[in-house]
Amino acid sequence: MKFESIALLADDHPPAQEAIEKLKANYETVAAEEADIIVALGGDGFMLSTVHQFMELGTPIFGMNLGSVGFLMNEFRETGLRDRLLKSEPIELHALRMKAETLEGTEHNALAINEVSLLRELRLAAKIRIIIDGIERMEEMICDGVLIATSAGSTAYNLSAYGPIIPLGTGLLALTPISAFRPRRWRGALLPENTVIKFEVLDAKIRPVSAVADFTEIRNVTSVEVRQEKDIFPTILFDPEHNLEERILKEQFLP
Predict the structure, then answer these.
(1) Which tens digit of pLDDT belongs to each residue from 170-213?
(2) In the CATH scheme, what is the code of domain 96-228?
């Protein structure tokens, strides 16, 4: 891949701000909207927000970690950036589209790279019906919530909720309950990526639920439909020795 023009973006934390000043002194840059590639400096959260901001432009993004976890990032180095970009390997991420309807009768759409999650708003547990490709698969789940994760997002909130890690390229989504009370021993399901998942919130006025697609939160939802977005697939770049597929594989063998 050839990159003639580079944009540098950094989050607000001091390490990232210091890093961007050093890189700007060594590399000629352009605005992100004009760049062939965007270099994002920060943590996974900043990388995710950068992907959301520019995914419809289709500009590939190379992240360098100056945060804590850095699962979606490469190691930060001041030197050799152009050579690293030329040797980098692309990974296409497949977004999820969330369509949520609320008690007020409004409809909201949002995209998610990691996951779409439903979460109870009050002390009362949520009651949620699960419908897969038009077929009711669970009449009622009493829980704190439920989520649908992509393979790239399977090591994020999904993993914390004891969901499975999904290697890239398997064509699967993780359907994972969050603190389910009934059915207590249900651990979720693996679904084909072309599945259409619908959640219906029962007793929505008494037991209000929020729906969250990465950064977008919609409160007081009555139903949420999730399906893969076919036309938008952002590209992130990794050093050959440290790509996302390898990270997902390693994560499954951590103690």
Answers:
(1) 899 999 999 999 998 899 999 999 999 999 999 999 999 999 99
(2) 2.60.200.30
E runs forming strands in 133-234: 135-143, 145-149, 172-178, 189-192, 197-202, 209-213, 216-218, 221-228
Residue-level pLDDT at 184? 87
Catalytic residue among 36, 44, 83, 144: 44
Q: What distance in Å separates the CA atoms of residue 16 and residue 145, rounded to the nearest whole number?
A: 34
For residue 183, whether the previous peptide bond is cis, meaning omega lies within 30 degrees of 0, is yes
- DSSP-derived letter for residue 205 is T
**232: buried, middle or exposed (CB in 10 Å: 19+, 13-18, 0-12)?**
middle
Query: What is the predicted pLDDT for the residue at 248?
Result: 75
Class of domain 6-93+233-251: alpha beta
Confidence of residue 1 (pLDDT cuts 50, 70, 90): low
Q: Which has the closest alpha carbon to 9: 80, 1, 85, 23? A: 23
Domain ranges of the chain: 6-93+233-251, 96-228
Run of H or E residues at 248: helix 244-251
pTM recorded for the entire structure: 0.86
Kindly compute the dihedral angle of the four CA atoms of residues 232, 237, 242, 245, in this order, to the nearest 10 degrees: 20
Q: Are both 6-93+233-251 and 96-228 of the same fold?
A: no
Q: Give the residue carrying structure tokens 């000629």.
A: 28
To the query of whether residue 36 is one of the catalytic residues in this protein, the response is: no
